[in-house]
């Protein structure tokens, strides 16, 4: 089973990297960019075939390691 | 004082730290590999040194914080043992949950490698007793992610409980925006946990302990720790 965990910064957390990318997009002349926030994507292959078990494992992975929940949110998707 | 320095792949300040500890205490320091599940018997102080553990993959300190040895460090801290984390060590302690908050990318996005000044906020802790309250010391920094952030509630608690031990300041001791080179909340350079036995700090006091380094302002921290155990003995 394939899955994707997306980790993003919580709103209100300063994202200097996103700001730098935003600036670069503007200087490239890409129109209409209001703001950019940078995040991370983890593509994970699971041995489990049970959906509920897979979701629980991914949630544990995100809570324990993939995200720092002080500053980040995450979303788990089974593909 | 018997100290143990943790060694993770990618750490690079462990020898500097061991040297500073030996200079202050006269004792050899145990180097403890990250895969160990216990600390040497009779350890008084655990140090998490600086560097780039696991190449800063995922987040600075994130992978080291989950290493087997960290469970032993958690138990050691829970029983009141002293833990010092410097630079990457501070990041590791935050990631491990031993300290609140997080070290974010420097506000100016630049890796900063130079001497800075910091103010010792109080002298009645094991980590600051070698200094006077209000004393300004010069210490090197070398980091790209030292911008300390925590939620308002946590910051309020840190300040209210006097848990900010070191704060960036001007050479004259003024805490202002200009001296807060990495954008840290409240100019925080170093904090302790609620119990006061775990300190995390971004600057490297271990690199200012000998005349040849051009400054010995870092000595106070190590001398204070040694005194702490002399007093206890």
UniProtKB/TrEMBL annotation, chain A:
A single MF term (Gene Ontology): phosphoribosylformylglycinamidine synthase activity
Subcellular localization, as worded in the UniProt entry: Cytoplasm
Class in the EC hierarchy, top level: ligase
Secretion signal, residue range per the UniProt entry: none
InterPro entries in alphabetical order: PurS (IPR003850), PurS-like_sf (IPR036604)
Reaction equations catalysed: N(2)-formyl-N(1)-(5-phospho-beta-D-ribosyl)glycinamide + L-glutamine + ATP + H2O = 2-formamido-N(1)-(5-O-phospho-beta-D-ribosyl)acetamidine + L-glutamate + ADP + phosphate + H(+)
Record-level GO BP terms: 'de novo' IMP biosynthetic process
The entry's keywords: ATP-binding, Cytoplasm, Ligase, Nucleotide-binding, Purine biosynthesis
GO cellular component terms listed in the entry, alphabetical order: cytoplasm
EC number: 6.3.5.3
Pathway(s) per entry: Purine metabolism; IMP biosynthesis via de novo pathway; 5-amino-1-(5-phospho-D-ribosyl)imidazole from N(2)-formyl-N(1)-(5-phospho-D-ribosyl)glycinamide: step 1/2
Subunit structure: Part of the FGAM synthase complex composed of 1 PurL, 1 PurQ and 2 PurS subunits.
Family: Belongs to the PurS family.
Record's function text: Part of the phosphoribosylformylglycinamidine synthase complex involved in the purines biosynthetic pathway. Catalyzes the ATP-dependent conversion of formylglycinamide ribonucleotide (FGAR) and glutamine to yield formylglycinamidine ribonucleotide (FGAM) and glutamate. The FGAM synthase complex is composed of three subunits. PurQ produces an ammonia molecule by converting glutamine to glutamate. PurL transfers the ammonia molecule to FGAR to form FGAM in an ATP-dependent manner.
Protein name: Phosphoribosylformylglycinamidine synthase subunit PurS
Organism field: Bradyrhizobium elkanii
Recorded name of the encoding gene: purS
